[in-house]
């Protein structure tokens, strides 16, 4: 069994011990657990489809713990549901000089958010650094193809990144996005999402998709109001191999 494909270099470096990420179990789960434990792995993170009830039941029986539930929204780039745009909001590409501001917004927006933060065995400070690190890494084209920024009166109010996948049939997947708490409830997320659709269309993408936690109700409402439809759902589990 080749364990290299399971190794999460980013998580291992961040938390200081061996962490595996397994989304596709192509070997018996018990065999994978034994192999990883014998190679000094301490934590497994698994994101599996929510309708794979047989696998979910097996993972729970083996001590995997549910940490979050996500849905994937999809929207063709052919059009959007109409909404009133604000004349005060300007959408532009991010600049390197925006980096510190975007990090600050991420720090305020993602505190105690997601499956890492839900695992109380992990260092909470390092968990909260994940999203600010993500937006910094998004300035690398290997991580994101663009970062859109929303401005109000010259002040950065939010951001949203995208990555293009596929060769023959291309689509854009949303990466990390957030609106500064001071500017929320002003439909800025809708505006930047629509700008993302326009950007994807201009790059010959057939659709845009975004993942979001089911408990992030404002973002779920925004996607629904813009005509996005749920196309998939996932659950994220953590399994500590010391247990």
Protein architecture, described:
There is one protein chain. The chain is α+β, with helices and mostly antiparallel strands. The chain folds into two domains: 4-69 and 236-240, no CATH class; 73-233, Aminopeptidase, CATH 3.40.630. It is built from eight helices and nine strands. It has helices at 9-15, 29-38, 53-61, 99-109, 114-118, 124-137, 188-202, 217-225; strands spanning 18-21, 41-49, 65-76, 89-93, 146-152, 155-165, 171-179, 207-213, 229-240. It has a nine-stranded mixed β-sheet, with helices on both faces. Strand 6 (155-165) and strand 7 (171-179) form a beta hairpin. Helix 4 packs antiparallel against helix 6 (124-137).
Concise synopsis of the structure shown:
The protein is of the alpha+beta class.
The figure for the number of domains is 2
CATH class of the largest domain: Alpha Beta
Poorly predicted residue ranges = none
Instruction: Enumerate how many helices there are, as a single number.
Output: 8
- CATH homologous superfamily caption of the largest domain: Gcn5-related N-acetyltransferase (GNAT)
Can you summarize the main beta sheet? 9 strands, mixed
Mean pLDDT: 95
- The residue fraction in helices comes out at 25-40%
The overall strand count is 9
What is the overall shape?
globular
Strand content: 25-35%
As laid out across the biggest beta sheet, the strand order is 1-2-9-3-8-7-6-5-4
Radius of gyration: 19 Å
